[in-house]
Amino acid sequence: MLLLLAFTLAADPSFTAKYEKADPPAEVAEPIRKLLAPEALVVTGGKDAVVMRVWFRAEIPVKATEEQVKNGLTYREIPEGTLIGAIEFPQEFTDYRRQKLAKGAYTLRFAIQPDIGDHTGTTPHPEFCLMSPAAKDKSAEPMAKKDLIELSSEVNEGKHPAVLLMFPNYAKDAGPKVQEKENGVCVVNVRRSVAAGETKATLGFAITVAGMWKP
Predict the structure, then answer these.
(1) Which residues contact 215 (CB under 8 A, 6 or more apart)?
(2) To pair with 158 at 20 to 30 A between CA atoms, which of 73, 91, 96, 199?
(3) Which of 4-8, 36-40, 157-161 is most confident?
(4) Residue 2: its pLDDT value, please?
């Protein structure tokens, strides 16, 4: 389910994205805050309203061999429960599952949607970042998937985790670059630093900033 969430915005489909120097929200715990990059990915929509600010982890840990790194990494090299970063919504946000998220700060941790039951066919890709209340996510250590689902579900009164849908991004440029997908979905493509032990590399992310599941 990493690094994925979709936003429902006004009819204007125009988005811009850029990096800006910005401190993470006060709700982000210090063990997490100190791992974040000093700049935020700022996404704006119609009339230059800020849709979200995303602080990626400065160096995202992956589990991969040198050969895998050489051949190119994918989301699947990120262990589930890994901290990816933090996100802030200045206004109420609607995720890909049409869930309302209150304005505020959330942590982002990677997860993969199970291909079972009512999950089947509900998303174009199974990789997500699950969002959890920043004030309740205190440790930067990986979180067990069961615990992550429970914490993220608190956003929606225990009904379902809050999701940030991610698309594959194989582009080599660092971005950020806005790209429109099918069915009214819009993503921002970036490349971020990752580390497999002492081996450093980059991995493409495409986070969904607009669009919802159409059942």
Answers:
(1) 122
(2) 91
(3) 36-40
(4) 38
Residue ranges of the alpha helices (H) in the chain? 30-33, 66-71, 145-153
3-state secondary structure of 118: helix
**How is the chain split among helix, strand and coil, in percent rounded to 5?**
15, 40, 45
Cβ neighbours of 66 (radius 10 Å): 12
Place of tokens 């379902």: 160
Q: For residue 94, name the pLDDT band (cuts at 50, 70, 90).
A: confident
Q: Tokens 């608190």 identify what position?
A: 154
In whole angstroms, give the CA distance from residue 108 to residue 204. 16
Contacts of 120 (CB under 8 A, 6+ apart): none
* Mean pLDDT, range 29-49, rounded to an integer: 93
CB 50 within 8 A of CB 43: yes
Q: How far apart are CA 157 and CA 101, in angstroms?
A: 11
When pLDDT is cut at 50, 70 and 90, the band that residue 156 belongs to is confident
Q: pTM, whole model, 2 decimals?
A: 0.87
Q: What one-letter code names the amino acid at 69?
A: V
Mean pLDDT lowest for which of 52-56, 99-103, 143-147, 187-191?
A: 99-103
Domain residue ranges of the chain, discontinuous segments joined by +: 16-210
Give the closest residue to 93 by CA, choosing from 156, 175, 169, 20: 156
End-to-end, the C-alpha distance of the chain in Å comes to 18
Helix, coil or strand: residue 120: coil
